[in-house]
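user: Here is a favour to ask of a fellow structure person. I have my own habits and do not want them to colour yours. Could you put it straight underneath, so I can go through it closely?

assistant:
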Amino acid sequence: MKTSYWIIGVIVTMVASLVIGFVTGQEIASQSHNAVASPDTLTSNEPSLKSSPVHTIQDNHTKLMSLSPLDDSHNKPHDDADFLSEIDNLLFLMTENPNQTSLSIRFYEILEGLSVAQLLSLGAVLDGKDETQRKILSQVIIGQLIEKAPEEALAFAQKYNPMPESPHYLTMVKSLIAEKMPELGFEYLNQLLMLNIEDISLSENSRLLNILAGSDLKRLVQILGKFKDLGIKIDDSFHGITYGLTTNQEHLNVFNELRQLNDMSVLTSVLVGWVKLSPTGVFDRLSEIEDDNERTELTKSAFHFWILNAPEMAANYKLENSINKVETVKDILRIWPDEKAADALRWLSSQNNIDTNRHKIDYLEELSYSNPAFVQSRLNEVSLNEDEKIDFHKRIYAGFQHKSSADAEQFLSTLPFRNKIIEDTPKTSTTSGDRINKINKAFRRYYDYKYEKAFALSIDDKGAYAYSFVVNKASQSEANEIAIHRCEQRRHKYNVDNRCKIYAEGDVTLFDLIP
């Protein structure tokens, strides 16, 4: 797929929303003088359709029909005046007819037929366009320049940036240019070395790094070594570096090359995709590492990624290669995905030579906070004495209280020992409130950032917690992945029982923090 097609695909899907928002702003502004203008609303004070020639409905229909891609007489403009006039008309018609895909296609066809000199000359007319038209036109020009003259594209994008509010647009342009001309990509990376250290963020250029890794990994590692010598963090920059790799050997080559950077977090990034493809290949390679600490930590990370993807297969491998079966089962259940809890109980039932009932009890106790309804439904699978029954139901009741007081009361109404549960259930403690306050304080810092970001969190019944947040990533999925990975590292370090979950995507929280 051509690079410019990718950009055009974005434009075609966005034209309608851009124009509808623009036109709606015009209509609201014209209908009500008391409307409060917001920074995101284009009002009648902005350059608008009034700057375009006035057309009647019949005129617009006639032009729309004449610009159909099926009409060969309009396929190629003959001179500068022709293509400038047709571009103006199309931009106007696209604004008035945002759902007409044929207009976007015709618009792209015209610019695709222009020479590099003609494309560059269009920069002179951009300042005369309204915000919507300027954004559409500049993005198509940049896409065409990336295809036809990559060396010209970045300078044009910097001068006529269609998305100045997005810090990632120019880095995306650099990445697309690097796909066409890797030498320019390496030049952009070397230019970062000339900046002040506090202004360098390799994580914002992670897509560029991934593209350059596919072009010349050895050269990339040499340059990244220079960043590391300057004290620049490089561990956030490699998530996704193995996307597109399809063999164990390809992953192995990347892993071996990146070991020269002597950075555990970088190597961990490689394991995510590799362990899904070839867990045997991963553990065979890790077993060869001589440094005990490096081997242990990487093996732990690899197993964690594997169990999230294929818990039963990973658990069987771990248990077969362990000496202390009891502790190994506890470790496995501690990181088993909550959404596959039923599989965990089935897996436990299939094990021999361990106290299956005891492990099920411990596992269900850990789930009682996060999923009390599931625990309640599976109590018939464990044998409990009278004291254990009371204790278990206390835990389930506390779990329901965290989620819904109505569900908690409904649960109590089914118990013959209701009063015993209420009397012995501890009130919310100050410590719990302090914990929530600390998490909220961190979240307020996180909230001040914009764009692709994620906040991961783990809280257990003992009062222990761990969290991590990341901001300004290339995509929401990347932000989520990094936040979960860092949170899990902290969770294991501080012995927090429950695994990390995404608490917030962007500015939207996914569950409530209840003391």
Summary: Residues 430-509 form one domain. The longest strand covers residues 454-459.
